[in-house]
């Protein structure tokens, strides 16, 4: 009888412990899910002449203007980290993806992009725009007197199995921001890029950033923010050299995606040539070299807490609640990744496409 009671007590305790562990695990997983990035909302860049930039992205690349605002005020200053600012911001759409062009009316003395920039410099970042026909797209954009980075469109070789057959071409916008045209063969790329369409410029596949150490960047974007690694390749040879206009280029590419995709984020770590320059520590958001990736999360306070605990650098002094939703979100904070690329984390995103996609995940 005593043994039976003892066994019953042990069984009861084991069941209690099991349910406690299950509850703890489900709570931890739910909290982790709340802290994960849900989507890339937009990719932003600072421009020197808004009218010129809007004209270029509209006419050369078929983007549509969807909003045009000016903002000022203390909450925006604390969010962005620039005192006395007045900003002109235009949001533009291509397919289901968005960019944000930002011109600083004040302070208007932002530094230009260094004219001797190369793809292995750590301030390098580009937009990858998917096209339906590379030859026609290349012929079209040359009418706008672009500054080419690539010699001509390049086809990645069969020896590079993860990227074989992809065609790419890099060039610059009027301020010198790098851009890339991408064409995917049938067995590559997101399925949406193979939907039948007569559009020459289809949407944004990803933004790529130069990194000094892939593992350090993965700790930030994958481990802390929750993006998923979905592929990668080692690109080298004459095609990559002429794509990047970098002699001897050997670049490790790591592709990450949030649950809603695209766009995604790609790392570019150059094994050769060595000597890519770091992002200067005094770069401000009103400098033309500035880009930022805006990421949607459910709980920005929780994400900010985790980042502080891991000694991530902050541009914003704290999570800021904005007086209105003209920027497309209610609460946000700007941080820097390990190499100094700016990342804006936002909660309460009000863009209709992103809201519908987010609701589909729930």
Descriptive report:
Helix content is 27%, strand content 33%. By secondary structure, it is of the alpha+beta class. It has a single domain (37-361), classed as 2,3-Dihydroxybiphenyl 1,2-Dioxygenase, domain 1 (Roll). The strands form two sheets. Strands 1, 2, 3, 4, 14, 15, 16, 17 and 18 form a nine-stranded mixed beta sheet that branches. Strands 5, 6, 7, 8, 9, 10, 11, 12 and 13 form a nine-stranded mixed beta sheet that branches. The protein is globular, with a radius of gyration of 23 Å.
- Give the CATH superfamily: 2,3-Dihydroxybiphenyl 1,2-Dioxygenase, domain 1
What CATH first level would be assigned?
Answer: Alpha Beta
**Poorly predicted ranges:** 17-33, 353-358
Overall form: globular
**What is the correct CATH architecture?**
Roll
Question: Strand-residue fraction?
Answer: 25-35%
Radius of gyration: 23 Å
State the share of residues found in helices, binned by percent: 25-40%
Q: What is the total domain count?
A: 1
- The CATH topology assignment is 2,3-Dihydroxybiphenyl 1,2-Dioxygenase, domain 1
How many strands appear in the DSSP assignment?
18
Largest beta-sheet details: 9 strands, mixed
The ordered H/E elements are: HEHEHEEEHEEEEEHEHEEEHEEEEH
Number of helices: 8
End-to-end separation: 51 Å
Overall pLDDT confidence? 89
């Amino acid at each position: 009888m005593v043994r039976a009671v003892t066994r019953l007590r042990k069984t009861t305790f084991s069941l209690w412990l099991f349910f406690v562990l299950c509850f703890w695990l489900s709570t931890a997983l739910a909290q982790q899910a709340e802290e994960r990035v849900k989507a890339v909302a937009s990719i932003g860049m600072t421009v020197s002449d808004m009218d010129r930039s809007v004209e270029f992205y509209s006419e050369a690349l078929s983007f549509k203007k969807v909003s045009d605002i000016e903002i000022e005020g203390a909450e925006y200053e604390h969010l962005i980290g620039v005192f006395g600012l007045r900003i002109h911001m235009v949001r533009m759409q291509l397919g289901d993806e968005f960019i944000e062009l930002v011109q600083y009316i004040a302070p208007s003395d932002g530094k230009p992009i260094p004219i001797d920039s190369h793809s292995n410099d750590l301030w390098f970042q580009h937009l990858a725009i998917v096209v339906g026909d590379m030859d026609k797209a290349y012929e079209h954009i040359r009418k706008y007197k672009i500054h080419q980075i690539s010699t001509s469109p390049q086809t990645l070789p069969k020896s590079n199995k993860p990227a074989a057959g992809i065609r790419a071409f890099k060039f610059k916008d009027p301020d010198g921001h790098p851009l890339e045209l991408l064409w995917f063969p049938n067995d590559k790329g997101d399925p949406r890029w193979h939907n039948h369409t007569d559009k020459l410029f289809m949407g944004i596949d990803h933004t790529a950033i130069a990194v000094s150490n892939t593992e350090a960047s993965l700790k930030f974007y994958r481990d802390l923010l929750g993006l998923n690694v979905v592929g990668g390749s080692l690109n080298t040879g004459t095609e990559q050299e002429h794509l990047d206009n970098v002699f001897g280029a050997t670049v490790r590419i790591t592709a990450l995606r949030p649950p809603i995709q695209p766009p995604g984020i790609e790392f570019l770590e150059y094994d050769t040539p060595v000597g890519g320059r770091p992002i200067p520590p005094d770069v401000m958001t009103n400098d033309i070299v500035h880009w930022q990736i805006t990421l949607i999360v459910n709980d920005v306070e929780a994400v900010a807490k985790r980042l502080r605990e891991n000694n991530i650098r902050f541009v914003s002094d704290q999570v800021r609640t904005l007086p209105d939703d003209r920027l497309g979100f209610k609460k946000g904070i700007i941080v820097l990744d390990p190499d100094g690329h700016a990342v804006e984390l936002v909660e309460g995103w009000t863009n209709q496409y992103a809201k519908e996609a987010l609701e589909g995940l729930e």
